[in-house]
Write a structure and sequence with these properties.
single chain; 198 residues; alpha/beta; Rossmann fold; 5-stranded parallel beta sheet; two-stranded antiparallel sheet; 35% helix; globular; binds flavin mononucleotide
Protein backbone atom coordinates (compact mmCIF):
# COMPACT_ATOMS: atom_id res chain seq x y z
CA UNK A 1 0.00 0.00 0.00
CA UNK A 2 1.31 3.47 -0.92
CA UNK A 3 1.95 5.64 2.13
CA UNK A 4 1.59 9.38 1.65
CA UNK A 5 2.64 11.93 4.23
CA UNK A 6 1.13 15.42 4.09
CA UNK A 7 3.08 18.15 5.90
CA UNK A 8 0.90 21.21 6.34
CA UNK A 9 2.34 24.56 7.45
CA UNK A 10 -0.93 26.52 7.69
CA UNK A 11 -1.92 28.23 10.93
CA UNK A 12 -5.62 28.07 10.15
CA UNK A 13 -8.03 25.21 10.76
CA UNK A 14 -10.21 24.55 7.67
CA UNK A 15 -8.39 27.26 5.72
CA UNK A 16 -7.40 26.96 2.08
CA UNK A 17 -4.40 24.70 2.76
CA UNK A 18 -6.43 22.34 4.97
CA UNK A 19 -9.11 22.13 2.26
CA UNK A 20 -6.69 21.35 -0.58
CA UNK A 21 -4.84 18.78 1.54
CA UNK A 22 -8.22 17.38 2.66
CA UNK A 23 -9.46 16.96 -0.93
CA UNK A 24 -6.23 15.23 -1.93
CA UNK A 25 -6.42 12.99 1.15
CA UNK A 26 -9.96 11.85 0.30
CA UNK A 27 -8.94 11.04 -3.27
CA UNK A 28 -5.82 9.20 -2.13
CA UNK A 29 -7.72 7.12 0.41
CA UNK A 30 -10.38 6.28 -2.21
CA UNK A 31 -7.61 4.91 -4.43
CA UNK A 32 -6.33 2.70 -1.61
CA UNK A 33 -3.41 4.79 -0.34
CA UNK A 34 -2.67 5.33 3.32
CA UNK A 35 -2.42 9.02 4.25
CA UNK A 36 -1.10 10.72 7.34
CA UNK A 37 -1.43 14.48 7.82
CA UNK A 38 1.05 16.30 10.03
CA UNK A 39 -0.30 19.70 11.05
CA UNK A 40 2.82 21.62 11.97
CA UNK A 41 0.68 23.99 14.08
CA UNK A 42 0.02 21.09 16.47
CA UNK A 43 3.48 19.59 16.23
CA UNK A 44 6.13 20.54 18.79
CA UNK A 45 9.20 21.25 16.64
CA UNK A 46 11.92 23.51 18.09
CA UNK A 47 14.07 25.94 16.10
CA UNK A 48 17.35 24.62 14.68
CA UNK A 49 20.17 26.07 16.81
CA UNK A 50 22.85 25.82 14.07
CA UNK A 51 25.01 23.55 16.25
CA UNK A 52 25.54 21.47 13.07
CA UNK A 53 26.34 18.35 15.07
CA UNK A 54 23.97 16.40 12.81
CA UNK A 55 25.76 17.68 9.72
CA UNK A 56 29.13 16.27 10.83
CA UNK A 57 27.83 12.69 10.78
CA UNK A 58 28.59 10.89 7.49
CA UNK A 59 26.03 8.68 5.75
CA UNK A 60 23.19 8.64 3.21
CA UNK A 61 20.30 8.77 5.67
CA UNK A 62 19.14 11.58 7.96
CA UNK A 63 21.57 12.14 10.84
CA UNK A 64 20.64 12.44 14.52
CA UNK A 65 19.67 15.83 15.94
CA UNK A 66 20.67 16.69 19.51
CA UNK A 67 17.28 18.28 20.22
CA UNK A 68 14.76 15.99 21.86
CA UNK A 69 11.40 16.92 20.42
CA UNK A 70 8.88 15.57 17.93
CA UNK A 71 11.15 16.17 14.93
CA UNK A 72 12.76 12.72 15.17
CA UNK A 73 9.31 11.20 14.99
CA UNK A 74 8.55 13.34 11.95
CA UNK A 75 11.81 12.28 10.26
CA UNK A 76 10.80 8.64 10.84
CA UNK A 77 7.45 9.33 9.18
CA UNK A 78 9.24 11.01 6.23
CA UNK A 79 11.58 8.04 5.84
CA UNK A 80 8.85 5.41 5.81
CA UNK A 81 6.57 7.29 3.40
CA UNK A 82 6.44 6.64 -0.35
CA UNK A 83 5.33 10.13 -1.33
CA UNK A 84 4.45 13.55 0.06
CA UNK A 85 2.19 16.55 -0.02
CA UNK A 86 4.19 19.61 1.04
CA UNK A 87 1.85 22.50 1.82
CA UNK A 88 2.19 26.05 3.08
CA UNK A 89 0.26 29.28 2.57
CA UNK A 90 2.20 32.27 1.25
CA UNK A 91 2.87 34.77 4.02
CA UNK A 92 4.87 37.88 3.16
CA UNK A 93 5.98 36.26 -0.06
CA UNK A 94 7.27 32.96 1.32
CA UNK A 95 6.29 29.82 3.25
CA UNK A 96 4.96 30.46 6.75
CA UNK A 97 7.35 30.78 9.69
CA UNK A 98 5.84 27.52 10.92
CA UNK A 99 6.88 25.73 7.74
CA UNK A 100 10.29 27.43 7.70
CA UNK A 101 11.01 26.27 11.25
CA UNK A 102 10.34 22.67 10.15
CA UNK A 103 12.39 23.20 6.99
CA UNK A 104 15.48 24.38 8.86
CA UNK A 105 15.42 21.22 10.96
CA UNK A 106 15.89 19.27 7.70
CA UNK A 107 19.58 20.10 8.02
CA UNK A 108 19.84 16.49 9.29
CA UNK A 109 19.59 15.61 5.57
CA UNK A 110 22.77 17.57 4.84
CA UNK A 111 26.37 16.45 5.23
CA UNK A 112 28.25 19.60 6.08
CA UNK A 113 31.56 19.23 7.92
CA UNK A 114 33.02 22.43 9.34
CA UNK A 115 35.72 22.65 6.66
CA UNK A 116 33.18 22.70 3.79
CA UNK A 117 31.68 26.00 2.61
CA UNK A 118 28.44 24.43 1.49
CA UNK A 119 26.52 21.25 2.31
CA UNK A 120 26.11 18.07 0.33
CA UNK A 121 22.57 16.74 0.18
CA UNK A 122 22.49 13.23 1.55
CA UNK A 123 19.56 12.29 -0.72
CA UNK A 124 21.02 13.88 -3.86
CA UNK A 125 21.67 10.55 -5.60
CA UNK A 126 18.77 8.40 -4.40
CA UNK A 127 15.78 7.68 -6.68
CA UNK A 128 13.24 10.40 -6.01
CA UNK A 129 9.93 9.89 -4.25
CA UNK A 130 6.92 11.83 -5.60
CA UNK A 131 5.54 14.99 -4.07
CA UNK A 132 2.83 17.56 -4.80
CA UNK A 133 3.48 21.14 -3.67
CA UNK A 134 0.56 23.20 -2.37
CA UNK A 135 0.29 26.92 -1.69
CA UNK A 136 -2.17 29.80 -1.87
CA UNK A 137 -2.21 33.57 -1.77
CA UNK A 138 -4.31 36.71 -1.86
CA UNK A 139 -2.55 37.60 -5.11
CA UNK A 140 -3.45 35.83 -8.38
CA UNK A 141 -1.98 32.34 -8.62
CA UNK A 142 0.25 33.15 -11.59
CA UNK A 143 1.72 36.13 -9.73
CA UNK A 144 2.26 33.93 -6.69
CA UNK A 145 4.07 31.33 -8.78
CA UNK A 146 6.27 33.92 -10.47
CA UNK A 147 7.02 36.46 -7.75
CA UNK A 148 6.79 34.70 -4.39
CA UNK A 149 9.46 32.32 -3.11
CA UNK A 150 6.97 29.82 -1.63
CA UNK A 151 7.26 27.22 -4.39
CA UNK A 152 11.03 27.55 -4.38
CA UNK A 153 11.08 26.79 -0.66
CA UNK A 154 8.70 23.86 -1.04
CA UNK A 155 10.96 22.54 -3.85
CA UNK A 156 14.02 22.86 -1.60
CA UNK A 157 12.15 20.92 1.09
CA UNK A 158 11.39 18.20 -1.46
CA UNK A 159 15.05 18.05 -2.51
CA UNK A 160 16.23 17.74 1.10
CA UNK A 161 14.00 14.73 1.80
CA UNK A 162 14.71 13.04 -1.55
CA UNK A 163 11.53 13.89 -3.44
CA UNK A 164 10.70 15.50 -6.78
CA UNK A 165 7.48 17.41 -7.57
CA UNK A 166 4.93 15.79 -9.89
CA UNK A 167 2.72 18.87 -9.74
CA UNK A 168 1.89 22.09 -7.93
CA UNK A 169 -1.36 23.71 -6.82
CA UNK A 170 -1.14 27.44 -6.23
CA UNK A 171 -4.56 28.83 -5.41
CA UNK A 172 -4.66 32.58 -5.93
CA UNK A 173 -7.28 35.27 -5.27
CA UNK A 174 -8.52 33.36 -2.24
CA UNK A 175 -8.31 35.87 0.60
CA UNK A 176 -11.39 38.07 0.28
CA UNK A 177 -13.55 36.24 2.82
CA UNK A 178 -12.92 35.14 6.42
CA UNK A 179 -13.75 31.52 5.57
CA UNK A 180 -12.82 30.96 1.91
CA UNK A 181 -14.00 27.81 0.18
CA UNK A 182 -11.89 26.31 -2.60
CA UNK A 183 -13.56 26.11 -6.03
CA UNK A 184 -14.61 22.97 -7.90
CA UNK A 185 -11.75 23.65 -10.32
CA UNK A 186 -9.16 23.63 -7.51
CA UNK A 187 -10.73 20.48 -6.04
CA UNK A 188 -10.57 18.79 -9.45
CA UNK A 189 -6.88 19.67 -9.81
CA UNK A 190 -6.24 18.38 -6.29
CA UNK A 191 -7.79 15.04 -7.27
CA UNK A 192 -5.79 14.82 -10.51
CA UNK A 193 -2.52 15.49 -8.69
CA UNK A 194 -3.43 13.07 -5.88
CA UNK A 195 -3.72 10.35 -8.55
CA UNK A 196 -0.17 11.14 -9.69
CA UNK A 197 1.16 10.27 -6.24
CA UNK A 198 -0.01 6.66 -6.29
C1 LIG B 1 0.52 37.27 7.88
C2 LIG B 1 -0.01 37.06 6.51
C3 LIG B 1 0.79 37.34 5.42
C4 LIG B 1 0.33 37.15 4.12
N1 LIG B 1 1.14 37.47 3.10
C5 LIG B 1 0.69 37.34 1.82
C6 LIG B 1 1.52 37.74 0.73
O1 LIG B 1 2.66 38.15 0.89
N2 LIG B 1 0.99 37.65 -0.51
C7 LIG B 1 -0.28 37.18 -0.75
O2 LIG B 1 -0.69 37.17 -1.89
N3 LIG B 1 -1.06 36.75 0.28
C8 LIG B 1 -0.62 36.83 1.55
N4 LIG B 1 -1.41 36.41 2.60
C9 LIG B 1 -2.69 35.74 2.31
C10 LIG B 1 -2.58 34.20 2.48
O3 LIG B 1 -1.56 33.69 1.63
C11 LIG B 1 -3.88 33.49 2.12
O4 LIG B 1 -4.93 33.97 2.92
C12 LIG B 1 -3.76 31.97 2.25
O5 LIG B 1 -4.77 31.38 1.47
C13 LIG B 1 -3.89 31.49 3.68
O6 LIG B 1 -3.88 30.09 3.76
P1 LIG B 1 -4.77 29.31 4.87
O7 LIG B 1 -6.21 29.53 4.51
O8 LIG B 1 -4.35 27.89 4.81
O9 LIG B 1 -4.46 29.96 6.17
C14 LIG B 1 -0.98 36.62 3.90
C15 LIG B 1 -1.79 36.32 5.01
C16 LIG B 1 -1.32 36.57 6.30
C17 LIG B 1 -2.22 36.28 7.47
Amino acid sequence: MTRILAINGSYRKNGVTDQVVGTMTEALKASGAEVEIVLLRNYPVEFCTNCRKCAQQPGDGPAECVLEDAMQDLIDKIEKSDGYILASPTNFGSVTALFKRFMERLVVYAYWPWDMNSPQYRKAKVPKKKTVLVSSSAAPGLMGRLFFSTLKELKTTAKMIGAAPVGTIFTGLIATAPHPVISEKVQAKARVLAAKLV
